[in-house]
Amino acid sequence: MNQVKRIAGFFWIAIAFVAYAILLKTTINQIAAKPTTDTIVQWSIFAIIFLPIAIGLIIFGWLAMKGDYDQLPVSSEEVAD
Questions:
Q1: Contacts for 79 with CB less than 8 Å, ≥ 6 apart
Q2: Which residues contact 19 (CB under 8 A, 6 or more apart)?
Q3: Which of 1, 23, 52, 73 is the most exposed place for a label (fewest CB within 10 A)?
């Protein structure tokens, strides 16, 4: 099961990069198609808001690949240690 978690970590990282690349491509295309202030502000906000989400997915994937989720706590006593 731990090997599956580590492989899934790679996919989380890949999903973050691909999703953000698609978002940036769409942002550029939408701004180029209709370069008004409203469009620029709207798509810039989308790109800025999703950036921390993508970074979080990358961190989550990195930790999964590193093996930080191999031993998960079973009870609350294990969390306190």
A1: 73
A2: 50, 54, 57
A3: 1
Give the tokens for residue 42. 């709207």
In tens, the pLDDT along 27-70 reads 999 999 999 999 999 999 999 999 999 999 999 999 999 998 88
HSE of 55, CA atoms in CB hemisphere, 13 A: 6
Residues with Cβ within 8 Å of residue 55, at least 6 apart in sequence: 16
Q: Contact, 8 vs 67, CB < 8 A?
A: no
Q: Convert 29-50 to b/e letters by CB count within 10 Å (16 or more is b).
A: eebeeeeeeeeeeebeeeeeeb
Closest Cα to residue 20, out of 62, 48, 39? Answer: 48
pTM: 0.81
